[in-house]
């Protein structure tokens, strides 16, 4: 870790850098809270697999959002030479504003506020850099998976029924909306964090993500739908931007796409459980869509 701190001191206009704690260490990625004479900051060190193009996209979106009147994301600190990201060995890194706050909770209050914040993000205009979540490329790759599973034909039919999201509404998307990526400040306002993969993409994939990936879960080996928090999130979203019946169906399908995409995200042993979550959502689609409509 020290080599990243040394590189940070050399590249950014910061002095007396001291590590407070590691906020996240996921694989080779590190998110580090530091104090300096110039204030508190967050150093993010990307996985070595991340390319310079990706580092540029991650930092460009933060710079763009920092210029908005509504605060949605942490600000980004340029290097001494004005560049937004640096490199240490084979790793790209950048420095963000430290947000004083705690992780948002899975409560109706925070979910409602998060829904509103998501709608505000989707209302942002003028950002033209595509998200690294490429819908068509990702879908093609998804079709090639799980051919050894007994449910592959059913899985394939699910994918074939997913609409072409590239022809529907596009907006600035986060790609991983949820309390786990949201900080609650002392004044109650929420700030989204972890904008890796953010960019121009499908509104419905983004707003659909929590519908299944967050709100449908196993509890003591029994699948349950968290209707209360789902209603809160989508009520907050629609306080800012009302969804039509067609958009509600697209939102549901966006959730299907994201759950299918993440089926192998937790390793081979979890694939069948992830498929069970998707099956549950498909079997209870009317209940899930009623939650979006606030009819539960």
UniProtKB/TrEMBL annotation:
It holds the Pfam family APH. Residues 27-232 form the Aminoglycoside phosphotransferase domain. Transmembrane segments: none annotated. InterPro entries: Aminoglycoside_PTrfase, CotS-like, Kinase-like_dom_sf. PANTHER family: SPORE COAT PROTEIN I. This is Phosphotransferase enzyme family protein.
């Amino acid at each position: 870790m020290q080599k990243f701190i040394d590189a940070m001191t050399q590249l950014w206009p910061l002095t007396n850098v001291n590590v407070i704690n590691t906020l996240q260490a996921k694989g080779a990625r590190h998110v580090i809270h530091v104090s300096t004479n110039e204030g508190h900051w967050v150093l993010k060190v990307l996985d070595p697999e991340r390319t310079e193009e990706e580092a540029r996209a991650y930092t460009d979106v933060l710079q763009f959002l920092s210029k908005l009147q509504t605060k949605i994301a942490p600000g980004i600190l340029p290097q001494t030479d004005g560049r937004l990201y640096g490199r240490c060995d084979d790793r790209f890194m950048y420095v963000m504003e430290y947000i004083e706050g705690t992780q948002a909770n899975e409560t109706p209050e925070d979910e409602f506020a998060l829904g509103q914040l998501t709608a505000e993000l989707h209302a942002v205009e003028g950002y033209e850099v595509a998200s690294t979540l490429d819908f068509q490329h990702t879908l093609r790759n998804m079709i090639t998976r799980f051919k050894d599973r007994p449910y592959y034909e059913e899985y394939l039919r699910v994918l074939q029924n997913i609409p072409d999201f590239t022809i529907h509404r596009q907006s600035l998307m986060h790609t991983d909306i949820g309390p786990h990526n949201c900080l609650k400040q002392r004044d109650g306002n929420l700030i989204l964090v972890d904008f890796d993969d953010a960019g121009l993409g499908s509104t419905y994939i983004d707003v659909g993500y929590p519908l299944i990936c967050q709100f449908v879960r196993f509890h003591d080996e029994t699948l349950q739908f968290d209707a209360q928090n789902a209603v809160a999130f989508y009520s907050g979203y629609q306080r800012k931007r009302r969804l039509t019946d067609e958009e509600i169906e697209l939102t549901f399908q966006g959730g299907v796409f994201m759950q299918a995409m993440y089926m192998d995200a937790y390793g081979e042993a979890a694939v069948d459980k992830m498929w069970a979550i998707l099956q549950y959502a498909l079997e209870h689609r009317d209940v899930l869509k009623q939650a979006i409509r606030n009819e539960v």
